[in-house]
Structures are given as C-alpha cells and as structure tokens.
Amino acid sequence: MSALSAHKGKITVLDIGNNNITSEGSLYVAEFIKVTKSLRWLSLYMDDVGDEGAEKVADALKQNKTISTMDFGGNNIHSRGVTAIAETLKENEVLTTLELSYNPIGPEGVKALCDVLKFNGKLQTLKLGWCQIGVSGAEFVADCLKYNTTLSTLDLRANGLGDDGAICLARSLKIINESLKSLDLGFNEIRDDGAFALAQALKANEDLAVTSLMLANNFFGKFGQVALTEARDHVYEMSGKEIDIYY
Hints:
- It holds the Pfam family LRR_6.
- InterPro entries: Leu-rich_rpt, LRR-containing, LRR_dom_sf.
- The protein is built from nine helices and nine strands.
- The chain is an alpha/beta fold.
C-alpha cells in the first residue's frame, strides 16, 4: 500500500479482493483510505478482514471524502464489524454503494445498519444477500424503509425471510416510498402468502417507486404468480408505470 500512496497518478478504482489480506493487512488499507484524494471504488471482496479489519476500514472511511462504492462482501463480518460500518454512515455523505453480502451480520447487524439509515447517510445501493438476517432482520429493514429517502436498490437475497418477512416488507411498501426502485427477494422461501402480500402492496401504493421486483427461486405457486401478475397489470392500468417482476 505504500507504493500506492507514493503513486503519482490518480487511482480511482482499486480491487484487492481475494487476496486474503486479513485484519492485519486491512490496517494498511485503512491508512491509504485516509490519504487518498482520488479513489472512488474499493473492493475488499473475500479478503477475510473480519470484524477487526472492518472496524479499521470503517474508521478510515470517516475521514475519506472520495470513495463512493465500497465492497466488503464475504469477509466474515459479524454484527460488531457492521456496527462500526454503520457508525461511519452517520458522518460519511460520499458513500452511495455498500456491498455486505456473504457476511453473517445477522439480525443484530442489520438493526445497527437500519437504525442509522433511517435518517442518515446518502446510501443508494445496499446489498445484504446471504447475511442471515431472518424474519426479525426483515422487520428492521421494513421499519427503515418507512423513513429512508435515499435507497434505490436493495438486495436481500437468501436471508430466510419466508412469508413472514415478505409480509413485513409488504406492509412498509404500502407506505409511500419514492426512492426504492429495485428490490431483490430471491432465494427467500417465500410462498403464496408472501407473494400475495407483496402484490397487494404494489396495488395499494400508486406512489411506490419500485420498477423491479425480483423473486427468483422462491416457493410460491400459481396463486402467487397470478396475484403478482394482476398487481403489475393494475399498476400499469392506473398509472402507466411498468413494473418488472421476475420469478
């Protein structure tokens, strides 16, 4: 990282993923983050930085004014590490895309994020696939969506949400949300009841901004599919807005 700091040109993209830098190496990454004036995109994907490394990088991001995209995917980050990242979002208004997929942050971790994102930060894209948030985590996300005004893309794939989680999110989607455009709930064991609740939410809220709802690899059958199709058609007839629903 010292060579990067001494580099004369402007580095805007840095991908050091799959390099097993661990928490020890993340210290050097953090130091670079503090001094860079040009970096826009940084990936630490699958680098095993853990909670300690996440804390170091998160602390550095508080001082950074350029990085807009940060990839922490697959780093064995738990609630402790993501809480540090969440705290950063209170002060950082530059970061717009945050990738946290494949980290076992659990319900406690997503709560820490959502508590901050209700009223803070400028995050537009949040990826939380395979994060083990469960139904209780979906409740925190649903509550956050009632207040957040910046998120446009939300990935919640493979989090064991089931019908209860889908129903919980659907309740929030009935409340005006003019920012969320893309929601991915694939691989969540959602059955007909969950699909029906989501369909009803689409029909009930003409001001909903969602134009893409991804429900691939769930468990709903003909009933759920028909409900979603009818909801899509209803929205188009009433407002002229097209919603792409994938299942």
